[in-house]
Design a protein that fits this description.
The model has no long low-confidence stretch (mean pLDDT about 95). The chain starts with 10 loop residues before the first strand and ends in a 6-residue tail after the last helix. It is elongated, with a radius of gyration of 20 Å. It is built from six helices and seven strands; from the N terminus they run E-H-E-H-E-E-E-H-E-E-H-H-H. Helix content is about 30%, strand content about 25%. With about 170 residues, it is an alpha/beta fold.
Length: about 170
């Protein structure tokens, strides 16, 4: 007997009609990614979903062992910044790679403090792994200097953030 294992919580991304295109884009960006299953609309329920029979309904996929579901649900809902995906990056090369790939064709006006919107309207945060430590440092001036530097950036720059952190004075 086949026993499937299920992730307790799966992110569901609602697209109008381009879920498969979006998923193919995401799996091209992330090295550890794959499509797992595609379902299609049938005749049943057409009066509700109004999707052509045989068109893609859902695409189940994985990125870095995290399962996602992309749904072609129609134009009723749009993505917004209230939900975003954080990509934790150890190096500037990683930040540069994800920023370049995900921002291509996206909304340039949404690029601020490491946030971007991709060409499908999904929000991402491309963040260095050292940032939370710098922002939560017990020395208030250090965390404020890092925050000040970050607020001036679109794509985050680790060297600039480290410089802001180092050039803070220790409390007397």
């Amino acid at each position: 007997m086949f026993m499937a294992t299920f992730q307790k919580i799966t992110s569901n991304l609602w697209f109008d009609s381009n879920a498969e295109e979006a998923v193919k884009f995401y799996i091209s960006v992330f090295k550890n990614a794959k499509i797992e299953r595609i379902t299609h609309y049938g005749k049943e329920g057409y009066e509700i979903h109004e999707r052509p029979e045989g068109s893609v309904m859902t695409v189940e996929f994985r990125i870095e062992d995290q399962k996602f579901l992309a749904l072609n649900g129609g134009p009723h809902f749009k993505f917004n910044e209230a939900i975003s995906f954080v990509i934790n990056c150890k190096t500037q090369d990683e930040i540069d790679y994800y920023w370049e790939k995900l921002s291509e064709g996206g909304d340039k006006k949404s690029q601020v403090c490491g946030w971007l919107k991709d060409k499908f309207g999904v929000s991402w945060q491309v963040v260095p792994t050292i940032l939370p430590d710098m922002l939560s440092d017990g020395v208030r001036e250090k965390s404020e200097n890092v925050m000040r530097a970050m607020l001036q950036m679109k794509k985050l720059d680790i060297a600039t953030l480290k410089e802001a952190y180092r050039h803070s004075k220790e409390p007397a």
